[in-house]
Amino acid sequence: MITLISSDKRKFHVLEEVANQSLTIRDVIEDRRGRRRADRIILVTNINSKIPEKVIVYWLRHFLMPEEIAHASMSHKKAEKLKKWEAKFFDTDIDTLNDLILAADSLDIPSLFDGACEKVSDILKNRSAEEVGEISKIENEFTHEEEEEEIPSENAWVWRNEFA
Amino acid sequence: MEMESTDATIVGDINLLLLPEECLSHVISFTTPRDAILCSAVSRPLQSAADSDATWERFLPSDYSSILSRAVDPVHYASKKDLYFRLCDPDHPLLIDGGTMSFGLEKSSGAKCFMISARALSIIWSGEARYWKWIALPESRLCCLSCFQTDTRCEGPRLPISNNQNYSR
User: Which of A72, A119, A137, B144 is most exposed by smallest CB count within 10 Å?
Assistant: First the structure.
């Protein structure tokens, strides 16, 4: 059993086989193998307690079928079910998604990182220039004339919106 | 463990800039080249993530380096974004395989486009001057074959085309 401690000092007990889905944790466990029990406690300092809960839920769902995922031999029905589950899992507020991305990045959980990034990318898809400016929450610093200069002519197709 | 369902959708009050640049690049790589260009052009804070090699690497076909190694003239590029636009230029398709094929990308989707020279096709009796004549057209970089017979079958090489792309346009 591995114990994860979040930044707000909450403890999470997880099976080693389950926590191994984090490549960072797997490496730490590997380094400390054969040592005292106290060394099986891992501090996850940059993550608040809400996120380990989500991450562990994600791990448990994926733990049941790691071999099948690795060999892409999952049945169509199972794959559809997992896809539906993931859609529900990632249907959450943006702060949680941001935290999940940071957690997946620091704990090195590639599939969680991809899933959360893909969900966040939806907010940038098929937007107008004004909307992207709004989303990135920064006043459009470019003046109109600068804008003309800034955008190379090769990118004119984006502005003509010919693929909308 | 049952998951709590939420009705939250991601609109409105979003601050993407809380994410470090490498994460932001990964987020943008799930959009399209058009979206990435817009992010880069509109928002200074998003610019370097949207222009990064990590983002544009994913818009390029996965086997792009092996295709580049088949180029007649070596391709020089400053960044992956630069390379993407080099390969999208319809006026300068990349000649590969000793000039028997040209390669390019469809700009909005990054789908692979190949143009095959008649020299790369197996055409029945193509060596027979009675039926065929090899001609060079000044506006074409690839070799052309003129046909004296309309009912002709030919076979082309197998191409590693992109998945899930509609080529029938």
Answer: A72
ipTM: 0.74
Using CA coordinates, name the residue in chain B closest to A99: B19
Written in H, E and C, the secondary structure of chain B is CCCCCCCCCCCCCCCHHHCCHHHHHHHHCCCCHHHHHHHHHHCHHHHHHHHCHHHHHHHCCCCHHHHHCCECCCCCCCCHHHHHHHHHCCCCCEEEHHHCEEEEECCCCCCEEEEECHHHCEECCCCCCCCEEEECCCCCCCCEEEECCCCCCEECCCCCCCCCCCCCC
The Cα–Cα gap between A86 and A118 comes to 11
Give the SS3 label for residue A20: coil
CA A21 to chain centre: 13
Contact A94 B13 (CB under 8 A): yes
Residues A93, B6: C-beta atoms closer than 8 Å: yes
Could you say which of 3.40.50.300, 3.30.710.10, 3.40.50.11890, 3.30.420.40 is the CATH number of the domain covering A2-124? 3.30.710.10
Q: How do residues A106-137 score in pLDDT, each as one tens digit?
A: 889 999 999 999 999 988 888 888 888 777 76
**What are the backbone angles phi and psi of residue A137, rounded to the nearest 5°?**
55, 30
Q: Which residues of chain A have pLDDT under 50?
A: 138-148, 151, 161-164
Whole-number Cα distances in Å, B50 to A19, B20, B28: 33, 13, 6
Task: Indicate where chain A has its CATH 3.30.710.10 domain(s).
Answer: 2-124
Domain boundaries, chain B: 17-59, 61-116, 118-157
Burial class (CB in 10 A: 0-12, 13-18, 19+), A118: middle
